[in-house]
Design a protein that fits this description.
Elements lengths: L2 H10 L22 H11 L10 H20 L5 H21 L8 H5 L9 E3 L3 H9 L10 H6 L15 H14 L11 E3 L4 H6 L7 H11 L10 H20 L4 H10 L10 H35 L13 H15 L1 H5 L3 H10 L17 H14 L4 H18 L7 H8 L7 H10 L7 H21 L10 E4 L2 E4 L15 H10 L4 E2 L5 E2 L1
Antiparallel strand pairs: 1-2, 3-4, 5-6
Helix pairs in contact: 2-13, 2-19, 3-4, 3-8, 8-10, 11-13, 12-13, 13-17, 13-18, 13-21, 14-18, 14-21, 16-18, 17-18, 18-20
């Protein structure tokens, strides 16, 4: 409701009335607006997956459900799209219910527990009526935008309208269909809504567990996920994805069994392994983009951690018991003292540029960006330290942030955007309102001759508060309260009463890339959870 609408109500109905207290929902997602560049880089190097996609069988199942619903309806002389859609939903409910009965529930199983699974033991649930409708309204299905839906379409398991299964996927569909026939009675799949007892579907999950695709399914997924990228008619996304997977496999061959952090350390080095199999050109581009991604992850986390530090300082109480406004000069001084206390290199530096030069010199033996994987200057280690400091000792944040920004700048200076195509360059540096790495480096260069404390005025006023206020205003049209800090006459004030949660790195899709690659046989997963070629 707009203010003019409220005015009109009071004009039409004069008088005083009691109203409920105003409640505004607070929102804390991406408070500085840095997240999108991270996501853009991930989309560039690993298109077609997200942070949920882990199992090959979900792809087969949805393709089978679409094919089965269409063919079953056609066999019974039905061509109503709504009937076909309802059939697909029933097939998915049967699959999910079976896994719940087998004590391996799908993500988001609460609606299933609250509806279908409440059927008394020994009785049948009928797939129509109020409870069935409630389940369909409240569930999150496999094709949801936050689940497998975008990936299933991107990997061409289904056409964009979700109605047509691509020919290359049909061997997996038919393999799945043959096994379904062993465990499900035909009436459960027919158009007429069946009444189903739990005992009738218990074998569904046992015969076709979501974690264990068949050899045919694995082969089809390898084709759609990886091999198709070498086809002369492959799309750019297919080629980019294959280049990233080829690069990953090459690294694992060189490294041996590795953890995710081991792999991230190698990513930041931008080192192409010898004898890489596949398209070396696309693998080279993926290597550069993944090096940028590691630096960007650190830049974002360090900036957001400084927002948390700033809020904690602003939340301190004065003698009267109320938070007091704090001017920029005091915030700058406190950040400078905190950084000098933690970091001897910072303490010994007089200027901004002097500090960054000292950090760069730490990598003189191995060079940059390789030094961003070494103890003392490792991106992965600093990310872990920033997470730990937010939880246990926020006074360490300025020192860790200063070191982080110096390392991000060193990595950026060592990498060359000119080595990337224009589309990739725009991904890295094309959003100035989201403080890309190149813009951050330029701003630091501009103050390099100033006293070291000058960097905190730039960081706190520009990168933290300035970015935060900008994005709070940009996103303010939905009525949610996003602003955390405001400017008073005497200085900055914290405007939220609730404590702010800690910040984490943007989930980088590495685990799901590894999980899918292992599930389809491109790489191996060891007993201790590592990954190997």
């Amino acid at each position: 409701m707009k203010l003019a609408d409220i005015d009109k109500i009071f004009d039409d109905n004069a008088g005083m009335r009691v109203v409920a207290p105003l409640e505004v929902e607070e929102s804390g997602v991406d408070p500085i607006g840095l997240r999108q560049i991270n996501l853009d880089i991930m989309d560039n190097v690993t298109p077609g997956i997200n942070n949920v996609t882990q199992h090959v069988r979900y792809y087969t199942f949805v393709a089978w459900a679409a094919w089965k619903a269409s063919t079953q309806a056609a066999r019974e002389g039905v061509d109503d799209p709504q009937v076909i859609a309802d059939l697909m939903e029933r097939y998915e409910a049967l699959f999910a219910w079976s896994h719940l009965l087998d004590r391996r529930p799908f993500r988001g199983s609460t609606p299933l527990r609250q509806t279908i699974d409440r059927t008394p033991k020994g009785e049948a649930f009928r797939f129509e009526g109020e409870v069935w409708d409630k389940y369909k309204r409240t569930r999150t299905n496999i094709m949801a935008p936050t689940e497998y839906g975008p990936s299933i379409k991107a990997l061409r398991y289904l056409s964009l309208d979700e109605a047509i299964v691509t020919n290359q996927v049909m061997p997996a569909v038919m393999d799945f269909e043959a096994r379904v026939q062993k465990v499900l009675s035909p009436h459960l799949l027919a158009v007429a809504p069946p009444s189903v007892k739990a005992s009738e579907i218990e074998e569904f999950a046992k015969e076709l567990p979501v974690e264990d695709p068949s050899d045919v399914e694995r082969a089809v997924f390898r084709l759609m996920f990886h091999e198709i990228g070498s086809d002369e008619l492959a799309s750019p996304a297919m080629r980019r994805r294959k280049g990233t997977i080829d690069y990953l496999i090459g690294l694992l061959r060189e490294m041996g069994p590795s953890t995710q952090d081991d792999i991230r350390r190698r990513f930041v080095m931008n080192h192409l392994p010898a004898g890489i199999v596949g398209d070396a050109e696309h693998a080279t581009l993926s290597a550069i983009m993944l090096a940028y991604l590691q630096a960007r992850q650190l830049q974002r986390l360090a900036t957001e951690a400084m927002l948390l530090w700033t809020e904690r300082v602003l939340a301190e109480e004065s003698e009267g018991g109320a938070p007091r406004p704090i001017p920029t000069e005091e915030l700058v001084s406190r950040a400078d003292v905190a950084a000098a206390t933690l970091d001897d290199t910072y303490q010994a530096s007089e200027t901004v540029g002097g500090y960054f030069a000292s950090v760069v010199s730490m990598g003189k033996d191995t060079g940059w960006p390789a030094s961003a994987a070494r103890p003392g200057t490792a991106v992965v280690d600093l990310v872990a330290s920033l997470r730990d400091a937010q939880q246990k000792d926020p006074t360490r944040i300025p020192g860790l942030a200063a070191r982080s920004f110096a390392i991000v700048k060193a990595v950026n200076d060592a990498l060359t955007l000119a080595d990337l195509p224009q589309t990739s360059q725009r991904v890295i540096d094309g959003r100035p309102d989201r403080l890309p790495i190149g813009l951050m480096s330029t701003r630091l260069e501009a103050i390099s001759e100033r006293p070291r404390a000058s960097m905190w005025a730039e960081i706190i006023e520009g990168w933290v508060i300035g970015q935060h206020v900008h994005w709070s205003a940009v996103r303010g049209g939905d009525g949610k309260k996003r602003l955390r800090i405001s400017l008073e006459v005497a200085g900055w004030m914290r405007v939220r009463t609730r404590a702010t949660g800690n910040f984490l790195p943007t989930p980088d899709r590495l685990f799901t890339l590894l999980a899918l690659s292992a599930s389809c046989g491109l790489i191996q997963r060891t007993a201790d959870g590592r990954f190997a070629a």
